[in-house]
Amino acid sequence: DAFRNCRAAKDFEIHALHGDQRVEEQDHALAPSSRPRIIVATNIAETSLTIPGVTQVIDSGLARKAAYDARRGINTLLIERISQASADQRAGRAGRTAPGSCIRLWCERDHRDRAAQERPEIERLDLSELMLSLAALGADTIDDMPWLSAPPPDHVARARTLLLELGALTTKNDQITEKGRKLVQFPCHPRFANMMLTAEAYGCVPFAALVAALSQERSILLPMKAKHQQKARQDALGEEDSSDVLLEIRAWTYAAQADFRRDACEAAGIHGATAKRVGQLHTQLLSAARQARLDICDAPIDPPSAARCILAGFSDHVGRRLGTGTRYALVGGRRASLAPDSAVKKAEFIVATDINEIGRGQGDAEVRLARVTAIEPAWIEEAFPQDIHEIDSVEYDSTLKRVSRVQQRCFRDLVLTEKRGGIPDPKRAAEILANEVLAGKLTLKAWDQTVEQMLARLDLIGTHCPEFGIPCADAAFRKAVIEAVCD
Questions:
Q1: What is this structure's pTM?
Q2: How far apart are CA 401 and CA 190, in angstroms?
Q3: Phi, psi of 65 (to 5 degrees)
Q4: Are strands 56-59 and 318-321 parallel, antiparallel or unpaired?
Q5: Helical residues (DSSP H) of 23-125, grouped into ranges
Q6: Secondary structure class of 103 (helix, strand, coil)
Q7: 132-137 CB contacts, 8 Å cutoff, 24+ apart
Q8: Distance (Å, rounded) from C-alpha 216 to C-alpha 279?
């Protein structure tokens, strides 16, 4: 559109060329013409197609590449720099039938710093979809497949863990479950397929399909720093403090009702073009849901039901607030902060569809949570009863100099509730107190020089006169005595 509206390009034919076009549209872009042409192409033109008559290539040096996005835990298309080999391949599009040239929009030093070749996709992608498809085909475990390039073991372990958590595989030989056979029918990541299956029980399959579609793209909400911009968005979309995802859905609905017009969308702080792509993907996912015979009804969105659906796909992104700020403890022992523009400020428990690691210099990084939704711990226990367990432990309080009982109810390794107080297990308490005594942090009033002399005598006799049967007063003996005293 930018070229078509450019006065300098009025004498040119303008064509787009990308993989989502119909075959007839691609053929039209490739057909010979008496007029000069400008073809704006994705990297489909790099190797897949031969374009006749090209005399000049202008290369951005960028491409949307399939890669694992750790912040969302899914495969996605990320804009990244191409390799030197891809740059050479692109340059080869020009000059095939006549003299040609290539203009690269980056410097020579940048070119030298680029990778020589593209990494194989199997080393870049999350393997959950692949593992599930192989299991559905009845293949052996992924480890036994005769790969040309073997997938990294940590990627395999990560994918297996996720599929087990989703209930798609059994713990024995990665066998597919009945639920896994349902998930594999959807043309999306197993996380979103599980969301859509869960949504059927709550009557909100279109909502889950829209969440899945939104998650494939960057946020459709533009940054709004000025107060008048924030007010304009609030007037258009309303207030929201329980879910960033619900706010984004309201934004998409607003954009769709405005037919994704640029002026209307930008006035409300919405990226119209991205919202339009989301709509196309939403339609595809709804079509897949119909083929899977899900009950699709367009009922009003119920926030608790919506949150339960998101939880079903992102149980490994659950967090509990630390104190009263915006820091959260996450499943897996991680710590993270809410993104500054998140609308969910006071929720004790949340689930985030995006977890983003942001570099802060000198190797440090800050983990931020985006697309956050508030949830209740009861929903976690309801959805994942097999992952709920209780821990009854004892803990030394250095301030009170005493041992306390701690009772925790946990979801995997995340503490949901914690109760302190009560009588601790005496043996365990004695062991903890003894460790504090041995570390010099506690003293036993009656443990004086006389006791030390007696232990020294016992050790001497035990070492040099074994016939008396008296044990040596070594470190283990000393610890056992102190534990007995503490008990």
A1: 0.74
A2: 50
A3: -115, 140
A4: unpaired
A5: 23-30, 44-47, 84-91, 108-113, 121-124
A6: strand
A7: 132/163, 132/168, 132/169, 132/176, 132/180, 132/183, 132/184, 132/190, 133/184, 135/168, 135/169, 135/174, 135/175, 135/176, 135/180, 136/176, 136/180, 136/181, 136/184
A8: 11
Q: Which residues pair with 64 in a beta bridge?
A: 79
Q: What is the pLDDT of residues 37-90, one digit of tens each?
A: 888 988 777 766 677 788 899 999 988 776 776 555 655 666 789 999 999 988
Question: Taking the CA atoms of the chain, what radius of gyration do you get in angstroms?
Answer: 31
Cα separation, 79 vs 217, in Å, equals 12
Helices (H) and strands (E) in the chain, counts: 19, 14
- Given a contact cutoff of 8 angstroms between Cβ atoms, the answer to whether 394 and 425 are in contact is yes
- Residue 16's Cβ-count burial label (10 Å; 0-12, 13-18, 19+) is middle
User: Does an H or E element contain 427, and which?
Assistant: helix 426-438
β pairing state of 37-41 and 13-17: parallel
Scanning the structure block, which residue is given the tokens 């102190």? 482
First to last CA, the chain: 81
